[in-house]
Amino acid sequence: MIYFDNSATTRPYNDVLDSFVKVSSEFFGNPSSLHGLGLLAEKLLTQARTQVANLLDVKPTEIYFTSGGTESNNLAIKGSAMFYKNKGKHLILSSVEHPSVRGAMEQLKKLGFDITYLPADQNGRVRVDDVKASINKDTILVSVMQVNNEVGTIQPIAEIGKLLKEYPTILFHVDAVQAVGKVPLNLLENGVDLCSFSAHKFHGLKGTGALFIREGIKLDPLLSGGNQEWKVRSGTENVAGAVAMAKALRMSIEKSKLGLERMTRVKSLLRAGLSRINDLTINTPLENSAPHILNFSIKGVKAEVLIHTLEEKGIYLSTTSACSSKKQLPSQTLLAMGVPDDLADSAFRISLSYDNTEDEAEKVIAAIEEAAKQLRKVMK
C-alpha cells in the first residue's frame, strides 16, 4: 500500500496508540471526580496540557482541548463573534478557507454579522493589502488559515499579524491544522490570538484537538454544562486523547528535521515527474507552499474514477479536502485561484508524511500516467 492522503488523516504512531490504551484502561477516572482515580486523571490532563503548551511555546492556561479542528474553528469564530458583537459585527476571512471556517461564518451571517471574503491570487495566497482595505470600524475578527488544505499554499500569517497589531481590538484567528510539523508556528511572535489544531493530522487520534486562546481573550462557549476547560468547553475531558495528542505532537516535532528533508525531496520528485505527463497541470505553487501537499489536475479525466483506479493498485490519494470530497463539487479553493471549472473538477491531492519515500513517488507517477492514458481511451 502507498498512502498519499495524509492531509485527510495520518496513521497514528504506535507509541501514541499505546498511550491511549494505557490511559483508557488504567487511568479511566473522570478528571472532575474528587476520588483518587479522578485526581490521577486530572493530573494526566494537566501534564498533557503543559506538554502541548511547551511544544507550542505558549502558556498551559492558553490551551483548550477540543474534539478536533472543526470544533476548534467553530469555537474560535462563533465564540469570539458572539462575545465581542457589541464592539462590531464585521468578520473577515479568506476565500480559500476550510469548510468548517466558511460554514461557521455563514451561520453568523444569518445572525446579522457582515462577512468579507478576501480574494486569493493565482497561487491561492491572500494579499495583506486586501486585508487592510477590508477593515472597517466594526471589524472584530480576521480568520486566515496558515496552510491551505487543498493546494498547500502558505499564507502570509506573520505579515497579517504585524498589520493587525495596528488594530488592537481586532482578533486574529489562524487555522493551523495543516501546518503542525510542516511549517514553523510562531503564535505570539505573529500576533495570533486564536489558533486551531487537530491531532489526527500529525499522527494523533481522530476526535482530539486543541484551541489556543491568547491570555485575556474571552469566548462565548458553544457547549454548556459542566464548565470544563475553564468554562469554555463543557463536557467530560478526553484524557486519553489529550495524552495521546501531546505525545503525537512531541514525536512529530522531534521527527520533523529529518522528516521534512525527505518530504521535500519526495515532493520535488513528484512535481517533476507529474509535470511530464500530458495534459497534467500542477496547481500547487512553487513558492510559499508546504512540503507535504501537491495538487494537480488532469484534463479529460474524472477525479473520482482515477481515485478508484489507483486504489485498485494499492495507491491512496484524494480529490479535494476530505470534508468536501463526497460532495462531488469543483474545488472552491481552485475556483478562487482562477483555475477553470473543468480543471477544478478534475483535481487531485497528494499529501505526504515523513515516512513516504522516493521509491513510492516513482511508482505513483508511473501509475498515474498509465491510468490517465487508459481512462482517456475509455472516455473518448
Explain what this protein looks like in three dimensions.
It is a single chain. The protein is of the alpha/beta class and 380 residues long. The protein folds into two domains: 2-8 and 256-379, Aspartate Aminotransferase, domain 1; 14-251, Aspartate Aminotransferase, domain 2. The chain has eleven helices and twelve strands. The strands form three sheets. Strands 2-8-7-6-5-3-4 form a seven-stranded mixed β-sheet, with helices on both faces. A three-stranded antiparallel β-sheet has the order 9-10-12, with helices on one face. It has a two-stranded parallel ribbon with strand order 1-11. The chain is globular. It starts with a strand and ends with a helix.
Brief descriptors of the model:
alpha/beta; Aspartate Aminotransferase, domain 2; globular; 380 residues; 2 domains
Summarize the structure.
By secondary structure, the protein is of the alpha/beta class.
Q: Biggest sheet, in brief?
A: 7 strands, mixed
The number of strands is 12
> What is the C-alpha radius of gyration, as a whole number of Å?
21 Å
CATH architecture assignment of the largest domain = 3-Layer(aba) Sandwich
Unreliable stretches: none
Strand order across the largest sheet: 2-8-7-6-5-3-4
